[in-house]
Design goal:
Strand content of chain A: 5-15%
Largest sheet of chain A: 3 strands, antiparallel
CATH topology of one domain in chain A: Arc Repressor Mutant, subunit A
CATH class of one domain in chain A: Mainly Alpha
Distance between the termini of chain A: 36 Å
Strand order of the largest sheet of chain A: 1-3-2
Order of helices and strands of chain A: HHEHHEEHHH
Number of helices of chain A: 7
Radius of gyration of chain A: 16 Å
Shape of chain A: elongated
CATH superfamily of one domain in chain A: Winged helix-like DNA-binding domain superfamily/Winged helix DNA-binding domain
Structural class of chain A: alpha+beta
Largest interface: A-B, 40 and 40 residues
Oligomer: homodimer
DNA sequence: CGGTTAATTAACGCAAGTGTTAATTTATGG
DNA sequence: CCATAAATTAACACTTGCGTTAATTAACCG
């Protein structure tokens, strides 16, 4: 299984996609906070986090008994790179991409 | 399972990702051509194509005994849309995206 | 019509994924 | 040191996914 298919596999589970989106939205969080938001048990979340970690989607930082998790931007870029590799195919016109870029969420830096 | 997780699930298998890339590269093809390129049996490919179809990633066109398959660009856009929704997160600077856009795949690809 | 080809569906076996509860590991604090 | 808390690992059950070969369906052609 390639790195990319492993990335897709990691995001193919609703619970894991949700974990990733939560970490993106709220930033680095301890496992316990993620468990609190989930509808399933702590061990189940723990193993989902392990899958995400092994796929390179999140990284773990230990502090005391806490394990802080955060999304690794590089992993998302791998997906972006793949779609961009085939942009000529899915983007018959640039309208949609132009619209998105026009939103320019990164306005500040640059 | 959301549409997006179903899309990721469809691309999480190496055989299916390969099928999609072949269809993007060579355009619409009959199932037989895809079987010829694969290392596994025709029934196996047939079912992978079914998964891709049910996920909305490919569409099927019948002509005689042949079934032509092609990738649906909208499905790839769903992925692009998701990544773009979180662009502010993974794109700390716009450099990479700028680089990709500058390649202008409209003329000559890589 | 009968035979051939393209493709799918059926039936089966086995590996992998996902949930639970119980047990274990590691660090904190009285 | 001992009790507690955070998190993971272990053990188990159940479902899903993926491959195979055999059987079936549908269209084409002499």
């Amino acid at each position: 299984m390639s790195d990319l298919t492993r990335t897709f596999a990691a995001l193919s589970d609703p619970t894991r996609l949700s974990l990733v989106e939560t970490l993106i939205r709220r930033g680095e969080l301890p496992a316990g906070d993620l468990v609190a938001e989930a509808a399933i048990s702590a061990p189940a979340i723990s193993r989902h986090l392990k899958v995400l970690r092994e796929a390179g989607l999140v990284e773990q930082r230990a502090q005391g008994t806490h394990r802080f998790y955060a999304v690794r931007p590089e992993a998302l870029r791998a997906i972006v790179d793949w779609t961009m590799d085939h942009r000529a195919f899915w983007s018959t016109s640039l309208d949609r991409l132009d619209t998105l870029l026009a939103l320019d969420p990164g306005e500040g830096e640059r």
